[in-house]
Amino acid sequence: xxxxxxxxxxxxxxxxxxxxxIDAAGEVHxxxxxxxxxxxxxxxxxFVNAHSHLEYRGxxxxxxxxxxxxxxxxxxxxxxxxxxxxxxxxxxxxxxENQLSGVAYIAEHSDRPYSGEAMSxxxxxxxxxxxxxxxxxxxxxxxxxxEVAENMRQNARHFDGDVHINPHAPWTxxxxxxxxxxxxxxxxxxHVAESVHENDYFEKDKGPIAQACRKAGVTRTLGLRVVPxxxxxxxxxxxVQFVHCCDVEDGEIDQIATAGVAVAHCPRSNExxxxxxxxxxxxxxxxxxxxxxxxxxxxxxxxxxxxEMRMALEVAQKRGAEVTPEEVWRMxxxxxxxxxxxxxxxxxxxxxxxxxxxxxxxxxxxxxxxxTASPRSVEWVTPTVHN
Length: 387
What we know:
Elements: E1 2-3, E2 7-10, E3 13-15, E4 18-22, E5 28-33, E6 42-45, E7 47-52, H1 68-80, H2 84-100, E8 103-110, H3 115-121, E9 125-132, H4 141-158, E10 162-167, H5 175-184, E11 188-192, H6 196-204, H7 207-216, H8 226-233, E12 240-244, H9 250-259, E13 262-265, H10 267-272, H11 280-286, E14 290-292, H12 297-300, H13 305-319, H14 325-332, H15 334-339, E15 355-358, H16 366-372, E16 378-380
Parallel strand pairs: 2-6, 7-8, 8-9, 9-10, 11-12, 12-13, 13-14
Antiparallel strand pairs: 1-4, 2-3, 4-5, 6-15, 15-16
């Protein structure tokens, strides 16, 4: 099949005057000068959702709490009222909406056992991070870890990709379990410095997280900010992804970059929960691989990678440290893939990458495309990975 788009997205830039020949399996045989009339679409690698919670799709628009800590309390309570059948259906809906939005690969945080089935059902590849949350359950730690292991086995039963035991956040997992997971040496994704409350707790033993930990009888080593705390437990290494990183300082960004830790940026969720604005420009300048994550529909709203890219640009502009549309597109595609250990997620000869036609008239730049496209603009050229 020969594709003759208006433009091809290569390294985040719109390149016109090209056509792409692919075989039935989607392998790119040749990228060459355009030999016919172009059609009105842009050809792009499919999107990589660098951080996701499919299971919260049913809570979209249901939580009115503003502010990170109040929202965490609200979603914890709302989860208790959900039935397994509801959660399973929510995962299926969210996976379908990711596919409609042009997502082919998801880094999924799963507290329950249904994401693997949903991702496989809708032809999505990815990695599942089976969340460990031990906060308030230290007295029955063995039982809790057994539940997590069983949920992981159920996800793995339906899913061909990797499934890993994984800590939710530094403050929601006891110190011994955090250390044990780090020492196992596998791939890890952990929520880090999403709000100022986390550093207030770890450094100063103050704020709502500190109060909750004292009330629950949680004890751990304090006196350091959360990034150096995690460094002491073995989390600053390649194969680790920090999610959010809203409240980090310049020296901590340097630590993250030097260690080869990747970062997932979730700007719509962060704005909705009044989190600090992540220092994206500084992260990119330091050489950190940053992926764009849709987080959960409960905090980010409708599943829409274009809306996420628009928010990433808007937040950076409000900080006065702008990023380019090309950089943001790479975060949603090639850089996002590389941040998760996937290489070659680019349209080039000899490569197989899921590809999209994005139907937007008169897009002259990547910025135009981000500004005007939506999931309704997406048409799959090559199948998602598992189909």
